[in-house]
Amino acid sequence: AQALVDEKDAQAVALGYVAEARRVDARKYPKFAAGQNCTSCALYQGKAGDKAGGCPLFAGRQVAGAGWCSAWAKKA
Ligand code: SF4
Question: Does domain 10-64 bear CATH number 3.40.50.2020?
Fold first, then answer.
């Protein structure tokens, strides 16, 4: 399996990625709302039930389904 994205990775820091959406800094990211996470993001490539999956913003690695970043976009 591909490695999980490290929150301290430069790209993760730049995007405000956290592996657990409940740890999002709401002051820094006021657009964050409950229910937003990688699983509910349009860019997430994991299948239903997967704990992690691919994201085009983190090529070659996996993001946590429960994670979040500031590029979150609502699934159509
Ligand atoms: Fe998660 Fe979406 Fe951000 Fe990718 S773009 S890390 S799937 S919230």
Answer: no
